[in-house]
Every structure is written in structure tokens, then in C-alpha cells.
Amino acid sequence: QVQLVESGGGLVQPGGSLRLSCAASGSIFGINTMGWYRQAPGKQRELVAIITRGGSTNYADSVKGRFTISRDNAKNTVYLQMNSLKPEDTAVYYCKADDYVLDYWGQGTQVTVSS
User: Fold this and answer.
1) Which long-range contacts (CB under 8 A, 24 or more apart) does 101-105 make?
2) Cα angle at 86 between 80 and 88, to 5 degrees?
3) How many CA atoms lie within 13 Å of 42's alpha carbon, on the beta-carbon side?
4) How many angstroms separate the CA atoms of 34 and 6, rounded?
5) SS (H, E, C) 14-34
6) What pLDDT is stored for residue 27 in this prediction?
7) In this structure, are residues 99 and 105 in contact, taking their beta carbons and an 8 Å threshold?
8) 8 dihedral zone (left: phi>0; alpha: psi -120 to 50; beta)
């Protein structure tokens, strides 16, 4: 089993920045891909960015050039640096990890972009 705990959400003005963190614990040695998803009110959960254990990344078109995902395998932590935030980035952001067999989700952290 893997446990994921997110932090770093909050309220920010348009154009501002936030950095999300997700720390993994438990059976961490089998973790492969880690990533961030988000869900806005009334919408389906969607991929934001993912990163493999080897460092390969993939981003949603809507965040390319603004968000950067990174990973510290020694700390079992994945980060999401979010710059140039827009009101449409407002959502609950969830961390996800997989161990080639199961998917694990964090509890989510709220990001609100508003003036």
C-alpha cells in the first residue's frame, strides 16, 4: 500500500504562482509513475501532468509552458510548480501514484485562482 499526502494549495490571484507537493509513504519502492490530476466543480477529473520514475513527463495542453512537474525519488515526493495561474485552473488537485498494479490517490488540495 502507498499513502499520498498533498500540500501547498490555497488562494492566489490570477498570474500568481503556487507549488504543490505530494509525499508518498508505505510501499514506496514499487512506485512507478506519479502525477497530478484536477477536478473542477461539475467537471470530470482530468490529467494535469505525470512523471515517470525515470523522469519522463507529460502535460495537459492547457498547462504546457505554465506548469512544471518534478520528482525527488530520494524524498519520495512529487512537485507541481504552477505559474501564470488562471481562474480556469481553479480545482481540487489530486496526487496519483501507481506501482504497476494499483493506483493510489491523495485526498486532494484546493487551488483557487481569483482576484
Assistant:
1) 101/30, 102/2, 104/1, 104/2, 104/3, 104/4, 105/4
2) 95
3) 1
4) 12
5) CCCCEEEEEEEEECHHHCCCE
6) 80
7) no
8) left
Number of Cβ within a 10 Å radius of residue 18? 21
Is residue 13 within a helix (H) or strand (E), and if so which, with residue range?
none
Amino acid sitting at position 70: S
**Tens digit of each residue's pLDDT (9 = 90 or more) over 57-66:** 999 999 999 9
CB atoms within 10 A of CB 38: 23
Per-residue pLDDT at 83: 98
- Return d(Cα 85, Cα 45) in angstroms, integer: 18
